[in-house]
Design goal:
mainly alpha; 1% strand; globular
């Protein structure tokens, strides 16, 4: 109780309240920028936390996290341009409502749904994270290796249609994470006699290159189209009683469905929006309205999106393993502050943990209060020409990359991975597996090395421990099942042809 009270008091301090407000405002503002989304928002604004005290830094990042998740819906509804991948479904009915003059109602329901689902998710996170963390104290290096490996294998099936491509990107990310000094032996590896590589590659310029600079390069081949102007007057802003009544069920169902899916490996915030949209269309008394401006088509997916974002924090905070790209970016914020999320987080940094949880409740309230009256202002940012917008994004990226280690080498890394990210997007390949491999590579290597020392080189001992054995078997099934399924499908096709 002392730790909980200390954490809540820290979250309600004047400075941390200002930091939380700044985080949700910046997150929403950057989330409104088409194509960037919360991953880009956190990647671009991460350098702001370098000189901050750990509690304030993590409160700022959490505010950006939730603000970015909400901001993506604004452009989806107003200009039919998803701010991020999780807002694609919102365009189906949100933009139709804008064309009908109900943009304000759609934006209000998106804000209310995000608040309710986020608060519901925070309650469940508060209840579930500590017991899962206590249970996770039974995990040793073998179990950590197994759960990280399985997380990577499962995610590889969900981010790309090609399993081979995902495995290649994950492997490349792991290899890039190994550049520099071996933590166990102290020897140099993959440095190619370059003094710049002795300290390894910092993940911040790489992430900003993939999600920031690649968008700048992509914008060079796009033509600017003037968006449809939406009526954002106060009268049009508030939803009607009928719209509120029709939205209540989808908001609650979407929040619970999203939270449950957030506990699973993969891009849950994206998958949950599709699942929620399909569920609401099936349960609706008026399924013919979907795709033509149904309020449920906005309320359900937006709630599921925010519920999944909160659910994804449970494995990150309690196990120290991000199950999707967005928590992986949050993991980097913890690592910058020298804090490792996982079973010992609540034990070793109890007041910080509870301050972070309390700030998330506060941030949800701030988001609701901030976004309802200022939604017109945020919408104007999306109306900026790419000629104005992208140079600002590029400036953020260059300054952020240089500020990591005050090195021009990191700016060069930013440019290289910006081009690489642009080429991946042109090839319709998702860079998230590489980012996860890069962030989880050191955890994978250290846990494998420690396990090898414990087992004295006999790696078959992994299968003598119940948890690690179960996880590795699951990983084996996940790996071979697509091959087996394709083989069965091929045999059946040949039999039908015969």
């Amino acid at each position: 109780m002392e730790d909980i009270i200390a954490g809540i008091s820290s979250a309600f301090s004047f400075f941390n309240l200002l930091v939380c407000l700044l985080g949700v405002a910046l997150g929403t503002l950057v989330g409104v920028l088409p194509g960037l989304g919360p991953v880009g928002a956190i990647s671009m604004l991460l350098p702001l936390t370098f000189s901050m005290e750990p509690t304030s830094a993590l409160i700022l990042v959490a505010g950006i996290y939730f603000g970015g998740m909400y901001g993506g819906s604004t452009t989806s509804i107003l200009v039919n341009v998803p701010g991020e991948a999780a807002s694609v479904v919102t365009t189906l009915d949100g933009y139709k409502m804008t064309q009908k003059g109900r943009a304000g109602a759609a934006l209000s329901i998106a804000a209310i749904g995000s608040f309710v689902a986020g608060t519901l998710g925070m309650v469940l996170l508060t209840l579930l994270a500590p017991p899962i963390a206590r249970m996770a104290l039974e995990f040793g290096p073998p179990e950590h290796f197994a759960i990280v490996l399985v997380g990577l294998l499962v995610l590889s099936r969900l981010t790309d249609t090609s399993l081979i491509r995902s495995y290649m990107l994950i492997a490349l990310g792991v290899v890039l994470s190994l550049i520099g000094i071996d933590q166990m032996s102290g020897s140099l590896r993959l440095v190619f006699d370059s003094p710049w590589l002795i300290d390894g590659l910092d993940f911040v310029p790489i992430i900003m290159g993939f999600y920031g600079m690649s968008e700048v390069l992509g914008s060079l081949e796009e033509t600017y189209q003037k968006p449809v102007k939406a009526d954002l007057s106060l009268k049009k802003l508030m939803p009607s009683k009928a719209e509120l009544r029709r939205s209540t069920g989808p908001i609650v169902r979407g929040g619970l469905l999203g939270f449950a899916m957030g506990l699973l490996p993969g891009p849950s915030n994206i998958l949950s929006t599709y699942a929620s949209y399909g569920l609401e269309k099936k349960l609706s008394k008026h399924p013919e309205e979907f795709g033509k401006g149904a309020i449920e088509g906005v309320a359900g997916p937006e709630s599921a999106n925010n519920g999944a974002s909160t659910g994804a924090l449970v494995p990150l905070l309690s196990l120290g393993v991000p199950f999707s790209p967005l928590p992986a970016i949050l993991l980097s914020a913890f690592m910058i502050q020298g804090i490792t999320p996982g079973p010992l987080l609540i034990k070793e940094h109890a007041s910080l943990f509870w301050a972070l949880i309390a700030s998330m409740y506060i941030g949800n309230v701030m988001l609701l209060v901030l976004n309802l009256p200022l939604v017109g202002l945020f919408a104007k940012v999306a109306h900026l020409s790419s000629k104005v917008l992208m140079p600002i994004v590029m400036m953020f990226c260059i300054i952020g990359a240089y500020s990591v280690r005050s090195s021009m080498f990191d700016v060069i890394v930013l440019m290289i991975f910006g081009v690489f990210g642009y080429l991946l997007k042109k090839a319709k390949m998702e860079p998230s597996p590489l980012v996860l491999g890069l962030l989880l590579g050191p955890v994978l290597e250290n846990s494998l090395g420690q396990s090898a020392l414990i087992f004295r080189g006999d790696l078959w001992q992994f299968f003598n421990r119940p948890i690690s054995a179960t996880l590795l078997i699951v990983g084996l099934i996940v790996t071979i099942w697509p091959i087996v399924r394709r083989s069965i499908h091929s045999i059946r096709s040949r039999r039908r042809s015969a």
